[in-house]
Amino acid sequence: MEQNETCSPDQGSTDVLGHRCLFTPPHLVNAIAQSAISTSADSLTLAPGAIQQLQTFSTPSGNSQAESDAAYEDELRKQELLEISSQLARAAEEDPIPSEFTNPGTYRKVYNLQFTKHPSSFPGSLWRKENDPRSDDEAVNSLYDSMGVVYKFFSVAFNDNNIFRTYTPPVGIVHYDFYFPGAFFHIPYPDDGTNRHTAIICGDGWANDPWNNGASLKNFNGLFGNFAASLEVVAHEMVHGFLHAVCKLKLDKEPGVVNEHLADVFGIMCEQFSKDQTVFTADWLVGEDLIAPDWKGVAFRSFKAPGTAYRLSKEPFKVQDGDDAQVAHMDEYLKGEQDKGGVHINSGILNKAFFLVATRLAETLGEKYKYSWTLAGKIWYTAFTAELSTMKMAADCDVRTWAARTYSAAKRKLKLEKEVCEIVKGAWGDVGITVG
Ligand SMILES: [Zn+2]
């Protein structure tokens, strides 16, 4: 088994430029944009800024551009990242974490960027820090509360009170840009230890219409809700930061698939934890609370049945841009450049395996294991954070190595009984991966 775990340990990620998860995959924004545009004009009024955001967001960058453009974009991006990093360092100096705070790794500060997304404006003004009373801005409060749930979840479930390791806990930033249909995690640049300041940045979606005195948009409720208001979004993005802090796990190709999978797994466990849901009562959907109520039955992803979370194309149904393209078996693994190597598409295979492990453990072992994090989550957490056969998780860990690590974690690290190990092995087998 361990011979699969031969990725070079602790290899740093060097290609941070342009590689970050925006939560909303471009193909989903594109599907919603196309579907909205093809809907009768009478029933749809999108503000000009919203249409522009949809177009920008749904156009994959880089692929069709000349190399000189790409190089120029990289240079621009470097400058932006440098500026953001130095602004975060400045803000941290202005408002340091009090030395008497017991768990500095979980200290929260939420800033309001007031829609001035320019790097020199980061992080905006500090609106709420740890133990402050509620702010009069609901996005600030939502992000503050969700960050608290994430910290509490890792503390209660895994006794981990410092998920960002040697980095500072991220500052939260809301009101990044009007209509921005996403959220992302800022990793310091350069990431060489000289700057340890991170941030989680949330867009407002279509929570309000700046062209109409902040009124909420009527039709389709503006497509997307405020990303700061979704625990799953906040948890998913914070977990990207956790994954980076532990092993600089890459965000594209196969390691990117593992990365998206783990962000979804720990994200959905946070949601189940906050709602006290068991593996049987949970909906196993990601992002269902973010899509406007008019789009019935639409979520971003489904753990239970990858590929069925949304269906926006016209009849007859077929897998294309307008429908959930996630796959659930290695036979269907999408190769190619799309979605940075299908990171949000192939992650369905791994998500399905986790769903199977969590539900089968609860079915087989009973009441004590009805929560996903009690055992399945513990195996996944251990597979990611522990040294297995003297191998740390590698930055370029591929899909099969990841599967092998979960089996190793169950069998050799946690020394779980054979029945449990067989369930892990069986679930991976069901999605086309042999372990053990
Ligand atoms: Zn992600």
UniProtKB/TrEMBL annotation:
Gene Ontology process terms (BP): proteolysis
Pfam families recorded: Peptidase_M4_C
GO molecular function, one term: metalloendopeptidase activity
Peptidase M4 C-terminal domain boundaries: 248-433
Keyword Transit peptide belongs to the record: no
Gene3D superfamilies: 3.10.170.10, Neutral Protease Domain 2 (1.10.390.10)
Annotated InterPro entries: Metalloprotease_M4 (IPR052759), Peptidase_M4 (IPR023612), Peptidase_M4/M1_CTD_sf (IPR027268), Peptidase_M4_C_domain (IPR001570)
Keywords: Hydrolase, Metalloprotease, Protease, Zinc
Family: Belongs to the peptidase M4 family.
Official protein name in the record: Peptidase M4 C-terminal domain-containing protein
